[in-house]
Amino acid sequence: MRNLASLLFSLGLAFLLLAIAAQLGFGHTPMVVGSRILADAQSDIGAANIVTAVVFGYRGFDTLGELSILFAAATAAGLVLGHRRAGAPDDPQGGLVLSAGADLLFPLLLLVGIYIVIHGHLTPGGGFQGGVILAAAFFVSVIAKPALRLAHGAISVIEGLAGAAFILIGLWALVGDGSFLKPLLGHGVLGQLVSAGTMPLLSSAVGLKVGSELAGLLAHISESEAREP
Amino acid sequence: MTWIALIVVVLVLAAAVAVLALDNLIGAVVASSVVSLGVSVLFVVLLAPDVALTEAAVGAGLSGVVLALGLRRTGLWRLEGDRGGAHPLVPTQGQIGSASGARQGGQADA
Hints:
The structure holds two protein chains of two kinds. Chain A has helices spanning 2-23, 33-44, 50-58, 60-81, 96-118, 127-144, 152-177, 199-223. Chain A is mainly α. Chain A has one domain (2-223). In chain A, helix 4 (60-81) runs parallel beside helix 8 (199-223) and helix 7 (152-177) packs antiparallel against helix 8 (199-223). The radius of gyration of chain A is 23 Å and the shape is globular. Chain B contains four helices and no strands. Chain B is mainly alpha-helical. Chains A and B meet through helix 6 and helix 8 of A and helix 3 of B.
C-alpha cells in the first residue's frame, strides 16, 4: 500500500515536471522583465551593478522579506540554544597557528567585508555577501579562542538599529515619493562611490544586519555547552 | 576556459562522492565545503560573480562552520582533551577521536 502510494506520488511529480518542461523552450527566457531591467536599470537607479539594483531597487520588498526570515531563524536558534550554566566547560583553545592566523585574518576580513558592503552598487557583492564576510571575521576569532565572549547586547543593538534603518529608508521613500523603498536622492555619476541615491545606505544597513545576526548566531552555537561525558 | 570548467567539475564530483563515502564526519564537512568552493569557481567561469561570492561565503564558509560546530556539540567530533567514551551514535571506536577510548578508564572518576 505504501509502495503504491509512493509510486503514485512519483508518477504525479514526474508528470507535473514534464508538463512544465514541455511548456518551456530550452534556452529561451520565459519572462521579458529581464531585458527590460537590463536596458533601463542604469537610467532608473544609477547603479553600475545591475544585480544590486534589482536586489535593493526593483525587488527591495523581497529583500525585506529575506531579512525578516533570517531574523526569525536567528531568533529561534537563540531561543533553542538557551543559556549557559555557570562553570560549564569550554572547548579547548586553538593552537598557535590557529590563534595567530585568526588575529591576522581579523582586520583583513573586516576590511574586505566593509569594502564589499560599501561598493555593493559598483562591484559584485552587496550587503548580504559583505555581511557574511563581516560575520566571518568575528567567528574565526571565536573558533580560535572559544573562551572569548562576544558582546551579545551590543550586537543585538546594532542588528536592531540596522533593521530599523532599512525600514525607515523605505518609509521615507513611501512618504516622500509614494512607493515603498523607491531609490531617492538622485543618481549621481555612474561608477562613483557616492551615487545611485539611497542604494549604498540600504546596502550598508543590510550588511550590518546580516553580519551582526550571523556573528551572534555562530557565537550562540559556539557558546552552547560542550557535551557532558 | 572549458578545461578549467572540466577540471573543476571533476573536482566537485569527487568531493561530492567523498562527502558520502568518508567515515570521518569532520572530513565529510570539509569535503562539502570543497563542493561549494568548486561550484563558486564555476559561477565565476559562467560570469556570475555575485552568485559566486554568495556561494563562497555561505556555502563554503558559513555552512561548514555550522555543521562542524553541530558535530562538536552532539559529541560526534571529539578532540584530544575530551573526557568520556565514544558517542553512542558512532559505531566503532577510534575513527572520530582515537584518544577518547584509551582515556576512558583512567578518568572514570572525573
